Amino acid sequence: MRIDAIGLRIALGGRPVLAGVDLALVPGELVGLIGPNGAGKTTLLRILANLLAPDAGAVRYDGRSARQLGGDALARGLSVLMQGGEVNWPLRVDHLVALGRLPHRRGLGGLSAADRDAVARALDAADAAHLRLRTAGQLSAGERMRVLFARALAVEAPMLFADEPVAALDPFHQLQIMELLQGRARAGTGILAVLHDLPLAGRFCDRLVLLQDGRILADGPPEAVLTDDHLRRAYAVEVQRGQRDGVGYVLPWSRIGPKGEG
Ligand SMILES: Nc1ncnc2c1ncn2[C@@H]1O[C@H](COP(=O)(O)OP(=O)(O)OP(=O)(O)O)[C@@H](O)[C@H]1O
């Protein structure tokens, strides 16, 4: 599935949050959505996922509106991992991950063999199989994030959105999830991931979209987006640059005064 957004605008609490955003997401591409706190990343992701209606503009899923596509087809076509990782029910992990199969189930029947396989694959991929008999309340924040990630993977949708999927994770699991996202993209899934970690975003993403004050400041390959000028303007930071195995990376190094100066 491809997703096209045209001219998205929205105001929240009387303030403009998105001020005219055009974006195209295609199969097989890992896109990192980056930008400072409050830039509008989560709002954009929610509108793209049809969880929030824009004041103006439109989102098309393979050329159709969400209404034309239908809720069931959208739930099978687009899997969303939202920010925060709250789980407010004492649900067992394997049952929680199985919720990802709901869009594929007809009626009130139990899990099919295909559903159970998908749940097992998702738990393995998120390195959460050993947690499957615990309840959500018995997990650390990072473990809970991986379990929720497994639920999103269990949908096996052609398009995956993830809002800060590695924010709560240790370095090992950050690398594991980024490699997993990259692998999924290579296998054809279209992925949009909100990321704050610039070294990971630059290393693993095929394309970065840099949002600032509700507008896209840059959209392209990481090296074209993570320029000194863009990073100064968006984040008010100077970066240190390095290279390993032929891949460049940036490391935020110093602030350049209050945002907007310098
Ligand atoms: N329901 C709301 N009512 C009023 N303002 C809102 C609402 N939701 C979000 N905002 C504001 O919209 C702006 C964009 O929020 P959003 O969550 O999209 O930012 P973000 O780029 O995802 O930020 P972060 O990196 O901090 O997660 C923020 O200034 C936020 O305070």
Automatic annotation (TrEMBL):
InterPro entries: AAA+_ATPase, ABC_transporter-like_ATP-bd, ABC_transporter-like_CS, P-loop_NTPase
Originating organism: Inquilinus ginsengisoli
Gene3D superfamilies documented for this protein: P-loop containing nucleotide triphosphate hydrolases
GO MF: ATP binding
SUPFAM superfamilies in alphabetical order: P-loop containing nucleoside triphosphate hydrolases (SSF52540)
UniProt lineage: Bacteria, Pseudomonadati, Pseudomonadota, Alphaproteobacteria, Rhodospirillales
Membrane-spanning ranges: none
Record has ATP-binding as a keyword: yes
GO CC, alphabetical: ribosome
Domain ABC transporter: 1-238
Keywords tagged on the record: ATP-binding, Nucleotide-binding, Ribonucleoprotein, Ribosomal protein
Stated name of the protein: Iron complex transport system ATP-binding protein
Record Pfam families: ABC_tran
